[in-house]
TrEMBL record:
The keyword Transmembrane applies. It comes from Draconibacterium halophilum. The chain crosses the membrane at residues 6-29, 36-57, 63-85, 106-125. This is TIGR03987 family protein. The lineage of its organism: Bacteria, Pseudomonadati, Bacteroidota, Bacteroidia, Marinilabiliales. Keywords: Membrane, Transmembrane, Transmembrane helix.
């Protein structure tokens, strides 16, 4: 496996952890605070870095089913983070998350978990 792809796989795991901490905290406490925003933003940025590294380190075509799932999961994740920032700037520090936002966060995290594990399975089966 290419070293860039290995580093990308490590960084995607860090992204998975950061985004997971943010999502679970948001769903559990229903508050959009600085910690949630910090971990959401870290998750998005680390995911972007990991995707770039894995594309650069990949020998094959990035336009695969997993590539599509990964890109879609990234955009779903990005929309959730932007939505959190928008709520935070509109209503201030430690504001309550609405029901629709909680539902979106759960769905986005679930979708991201599916994309993460399909990528892991691809690496294992190669």
């Amino acid at each position: 496996m290419n070293p860039l792809a290995i580093i990308g796989a490590f960084v995607i795991t860090l992204s998975f952890l950061a985004y997971g901490i943010a999502s679970i905290s948001l769903v559990r406490f229903r508050i959009i605070g600085r910690i949630v925003l910090l971990f959401l933003t870290m998750g998005v940025l680390l995911d972007l870095i990991a995707i770039s590294l894995m594309i650069l380190g990949s020998k094959g075509n990035p336009f695969t089913l997993h590539g599509f799932l990964g890109a879609l999961a990234f955009f779903v994740m990005l929309i959730g983070a932007v939505w959190c920032w928008k709520i935070y700037f509109s209503f201030g520090r430690d504001c309550r998350a609405g029901k629709n936002h909680i539902i979106y966060t759960k769905a986005a995290y679930l979708f991201w978990v599916v994309a993460y594990f399909t990528g892991s399975l691809i690496v294992i089966w190669r």
